[in-house]
């Protein structure tokens, strides 16, 4: 799933390649992806793209007062095309959920792999009309995400576990399963530690791990072409997806906790005092 660094890198790419272009046509390939019907897709035709914005994991294509907003979900991606094929896509016949054609021949597809259909597209007059944007927590890379604000978030979370707090988009926007593993490892904290049990030093370490880790990942991905951003994410992860590999800090094999539809990875020595965490395959913690 694209997380804050990858979505911000996509935004940078689109600011260079998309802003100033005129939308010629939209083709909907997956009716289930389109979450709004007023304004209709045709309302974007003839409009010039004036800005690209990011809200958490959402991307917003501002077309002169109308907004094409999309969330790539777990298996979605943006495929940029210097020359869009002339054939018109047929709904339900390919992995393409939406195709945007631009005047001059370029454009992009929003694609989704797998059988689950969670990629979402909205056409709105204001991004705040998208419910999942209106309910977002603060952006961890924004100037207003200060240590004081973070302490308030943790105080309000009570005994909620750190892994869940970091992934909850209503609490903090943009962090997903992969970067929450990386952040918690950098902070040397158990994914299941309750927020209320953190010491002042642990709060400071966690705040620094969030800001520094996301900033480094975003900077590394900045400037990449859309086709290279996913591979860059895989290459930079040191903990998530590396069960059984040696911890890059202490050499202990990285352990995993499996859930019904996901998993997390951690170092037993660096994060849990040598304790192995129980498998939670039936847990709903990360849903």
Descriptive overview:
- With 287 residues, the chain is α+β, with helices and mostly antiparallel strands.
- It has 2 domains: 4-134, MutM-like, N-terminal (N-terminal domain of MutM-like DNA repair proteins, Alpha-Beta Barrel), CATH 3.20.190; 147-272, Helicase, Ruva Protein, domain 3, CATH 1.10.8.
- Helix content is 29%, strand content 19%.
- It is built from 8 helices and 10 strands.
- The protein has helices at residues 4-17, 131-134, 147-157, 162-167, 177-187, 200-221, 226-236, 268-272, and strands spanning 23-28, 51-55, 58-63, 66-71, 76-81, 96-102, 107-112, 120-124, 255-258, 263-266.
- Strands 1-6-7-5 form a 4-stranded antiparallel sheet, with no helix packed on it.
- A hairpin with a 4-residue loop joins strand 9 (255-258) and strand 10.
- The longest helix has 22 residues, at 200-221.
User: What's the multimeric state?
Assistant: single chain
Separation of the first and last Cα atoms: 14 Å
- What's the CATH superfamily of the largest domain, by name? MutM-like, N-terminal
The major β-sheet equals:
4 strands, antiparallel
Overall number of structural domains: 2
Overall mean pLDDT stands at 94
β-strand percent reads 15-25%
CATH topology of the largest domain: N-terminal domain of MutM-like DNA repair proteins
Strands, count: 10
Main sheet: strand order? 1-6-7-5
| Rg (C-alpha, Å) | 20 Å
The CATH architecture of the largest domain can be named as Alpha-Beta Barrel
**What is the helix fraction of residues, given as a range?**
25-40%
Overall geometric form: elongated
Poorly predicted ranges: 282-287
Computed structural class: alpha+beta
Cofactor: Zn(2+)
EC number: 3.2.2.23, 4.2.99.18
Pfam families: Fapy_DNA_glyco (PF01149), H2TH (PF06831), zf-FPG_IleRS (PF06827)
Catalytic activity: Hydrolysis of DNA containing ring-opened 7-methylguanine residues, releasing 2,6-diamino-4-hydroxy-5-(N-methyl)formamidopyrimidine
